[in-house]
Design brief:
The protein is α/β, with parallel strands linked by helices. It contains 10 helices and 10 strands. It has helices at residues 44-51, 75-81, 99-110, 115-128, 144-155, 174-191, 202-208, 226-230, 236-242, 247-256, and strands at residues 6-15, 18-28, 33-38, 59-64, 67-68, 84-87, 162-166, 194-198, 211-216, 219-225. The strands form 2 sheets. Strands 6-7-8-3-9-10 form a 6-stranded mixed sheet. Strand 4 (59-64) and strand 5 form a beta hairpin. Helix 3 (99-110) packs across helix 4, helix 4 packs across helix 5 and helix 6 (174-191) runs parallel beside helix 7 (202-208). The longest helix is centred in the C-terminal third of the chain and has 18 residues, at 174-191.
């Protein structure tokens, strides 16, 4: 058996004295679409940021492609991180650059390719996400769905075998969201990439998830097949999928009000 493309073991993350993640274990196989989900504030995005090296864990280990991350400033870890792509929640496109210039950035920073070849790759990547007409458009000229696709093209610029997506459907209408889900499935099929998605959108989870990990108060309550999770009738996982109001959620809403 080949080693998982991503392994998280006994991960603990703290913000000051507050423990946000407490003993998270996760294993993701090649070409799998794994969804990280749970209620608001459960630690979904913190887990993703810990995996990609944006947050240093208090304890535990993260392995990407069989290699343990120890120091993201080191050349060895930097080489590993260049094999991943990240689609941030807001897209994180630079507003002063065109779509083509945004997608070209990783290629200019991490390769020595001639500009002509970079331009060809950029056009190909934008076509891959169905944005061939947006080459010279600025992010401010794009719809929300187009910005997500342009950001996805940038995340794929270096042909990473592993892609992370933080709330890719956030702020999108149902039709646009469904189109983005279909695009992720198509990219997995054509490129064989592994995808890890943070989301709370039920329709997206149903459309793309092979397996899920459900976090509750910083701990994993379920880790397995999506179909098995939907069979649960009681507990926080079942409440989430059935959109059942709980006493805990109700108190959060009252506090927010």
């Amino acid at each position: 058996m080949t080693e998982p493309i991503l392994t998280v073991k006994d991960l603990i993350v703290k913000y000051g004295d507050k423990t946000v993640l407490n003993g998270v274990n996760l294993s993701v196989e090649k070409s799998e679409i794994r969804v990280i989900l749970g209620g608001s504030g459960c630690g979904k995005t913190t887990l993703l940021r810990s995996i990609v090296g944006l947050i240093k864990p208090y304890a535990g280990t993260v392995k990407l492609f069989g290699r343990k991350l120890t120091d993201t400033e080191s050349e060895d870890d930097a080489a590993i991180l260049r094999k991943i792509g990240v689609l941030f929640q807001g897209g994180a496109l630079l507003g002063s650059l065109t779509c083509a210039q945004n997608v070209a950035l990783p290629l200019q920073m991490h390769t020595e390719l001639p500009q002509k070849m970079i331009d060809e790759i950029v056009h190909y990547k934008l076509a891959q996400v169905e944005l061939p007409h947006a080459v010279n458009l600025f992010p401010g000229e794009l719809s929300g769905g187009m910005r997500k696709r342009a950001a996805l093209a940038r995340a794929l610029a270096l042909d990473p075998p592993l892609l992370f997506c933080d709330e890719p459907s956030a702020g999108l209408d149902p039709v646009t969201s469904a189109g983005l889900d279909a695009l992720l499935l198509r990219l997995r099929e054509t490129l064989g990439i592994t995808v890890v998605v943070v989301t709370h959108e039920l329709f997206s989870i149903e459309a793309i998830a092979d397996k899920i990990i459900f976090l509750h108060k910083g701990k994993p309550l379920f880790d397995g097949l999506y179909e098995d999770a939907r069979q649960l009738e009681e507990g926080p996982v079942a409440d989430f999928f059935m959109r059942r109001e709980t006493e805990e959620n109700s108190s959060k809403v009252q506090c927010a009000v």
